[in-house]
Amino acid sequence: MYPVGLGAPRRHPLIQFPYQAFWCEENVWQLAQRPETAGDERLVLVLTGAAGAMACWQQKAGLDGDPIAWDYHVVLATRDAGWRIWDLDCRVGCPLPASAWLSSTFPFPEVVPAALQPRFALFPASDYIERFSSDRSHMRDPDGRWLQPPPSWPPISGQPSAMPLKLTDAIAQARHGLDLASVTARLR
Prior knowledge:
- 21% of the residues lie in helices and 22% in strands.
- The protein is an alpha+beta fold.
- A 6-stranded antiparallel sheet has the order 6-5-4-1-7-10. It has a two-stranded antiparallel sheet with strand order 2-3.
- Strand 4 (73-79) and strand 5 (83-86) form a beta hairpin.
- It is globular, with a radius of gyration of 15 Å.
- The chain starts with 23 loop residues before the first helix and ends with a helix.
């Protein structure tokens, strides 16, 4: 996850979950295995825009009140009595009721250009945990330097018996996936 056209991020406050700024896909992989996120149903939401970026508000890496254009973002949705979103990068709080997260993260869908509207791919959290893998190459510049410091844990690799789910494939699915209205309806 890397913001498009923005400077240095704000630091994330200390939290009780494994976390590394700009590594939402790995943060969610870690988070989805925590007992605190157990529920009747758990989904991993991979977000991007049709053109490869989307506008999001209330993100800690952005300026207060301004949107940030992420190339992608990954969050966890859990359902008990209602859906909640676990977005460790959200300035408003975590977890939030899905409706609160959606309205604070995407508050102006009618004025955001179509190219920056979010698109979503939804994966059962158990599949994501079992199949997700990343060699972290998407976070290196052409000279091999890190764009952002990597997490302290080793790169995540899906279980050998599972067909791997690579981040690039999940983002491609999101690019052609559900729109905001469809996800809002799904997470009611």
